[in-house]
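Please review the protein record below. Let me know how this chain folds according to its tokens.
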Amino acid sequence: MQVAFECDCGNVKGTVESKRLKGYRAVCLCDDCQAYAHYLKRADTLDANGGTDIIPVMPSHLKIHEGMDKMKSVRLYRSGMFRYFADCCKTPIGNAMSSPKMPYIGMAERIFEKKSSAEKVNEIFGPIRERMQAQFAIGTLPPLAQKRVSFPFMARVVKFILTAKITGAGSPSPFFTSEGTPTLEPYVLTKEERESLRPLCGTLRTDI
């Protein structure tokens, strides 16, 4: 089954295969994900706690049908993960590990709601299983929030990555060539740019 997504202005459109996607959905509350949203001036893409709802996708299961020329990439650090967004409307699309040898693309859940209802997205991808990096959360902590990734959830993620490798679903990827070169040259934030974004993010908390 193909599940459609698009950016906020509709210039970037694509699909993902829905198989093997249940059980991996999580919300990341880390200050890096918050800083990224603020860099794009899209704090509206974060939830009330500063979190980003993420759905992992195997690289070859992701197809961008329209608007690849509108896509850009950024890294908060030179060795950090690749973060992809639609430059036309600054919509976060997905994140990839710092190496294509780790076949995992975390797609922003909200882009699927542009084509389906929240209830349908929940049906296809399943409920949120974990909320991680809660030490940076804003406001009252929601259920399942914790500082670290739990062992059971980490085991599921490892299984996901191994399955992608074994089944060959790690390639081709829209974001890496067969040689492992990024298809979109990322802009790397300077130290000054990163530091200017930190005050906009949730700070370390002691109530967890």
